[in-house]
Write the structure tokens for this entry.
Amino acid sequence: MFSSILTLFSGIGTFLLGMKLISSNLQKVASGKIEKLFNSISNSKLVSVGVGVGSAAVLQSSSATTVILVSLVNSGIVTLMQATCIIMGANIGTTFTALIISFNYLPIGEMFAFLSFVGVMLVMVDKSEKLKSIGWIVGSCGLMFIGLDIIKLSAMALSEFSSFNSLFLSINSPFILLALGTLFTAIIQSSSALTGIVITFSHLGIMPVTGAFYLIMGGNIGSCMTALLASIGGNVNAKRTAFINLLFNALGVLIFLPFVIVFGEKTVNLLKNLSVSVLIAYFHIAFNLITTLVLLPFTKKLTDLSMLFIYDKKDNNMLVMGEKL
């Protein structure tokens, strides 16, 4: 059992390495484009949300987008209200990763893993730095799927142990699962890795699908830890940006939790024709999309609330308070 647990964390490490390499090389290929995205921000809420979606999709991480956003707010390039809309969009953009992860449980999963070979051939053969970066992106995508395969194999081995197999099935409290998802994501700083694990466990029957929903909601809160750490040492508006990110995800959980508790099992049974992996990925998308649609009209209320919680009498908030999006 111990060796299977080590293999499980090896798979998580491989997956995270693949994500990190994709993110860093996408930034090289899209050099300047992220900045242009932020520079295109206007006083439109939808434009700001779109910028958040685009930047998180390019960086493959809402946490990375929020960390950049914290620094931009700190330097006065982006206002607090614009940052609020970008955060909403970034949370939608990161759900694309969950959708990609779900492909690993389709018959084409092996084809995605084969991309690691295609990518390394591009890196070794081509001399162009840009094409090498593309090769790293392609190869790292394959590495992510290899990591998911390792997670799947180790989970299959662990499922043979009755003590492990009954662990998540025995946890019935939504609040414990929320706490576990929050804690695990805060430690590894990747909600995508958590999504990969819960999809695998649910696919193998180790974890009920509704349990996966609670863990993913907790993972959304845990992913805020990166931005909170990045805001330490920043100015008051940088701290407020990190707080708004936490507030957005916490309110999303408060909105969704009662519905999942009451209707979660019924929804899973209603959509039983969908594969477990796709169903969980769709839930992740729905969580962030619906939360954004509900909270977008209250953008100014969220910024005002952040000022109430993080108050600085020396800070001149007149510009922020007077903004209208």
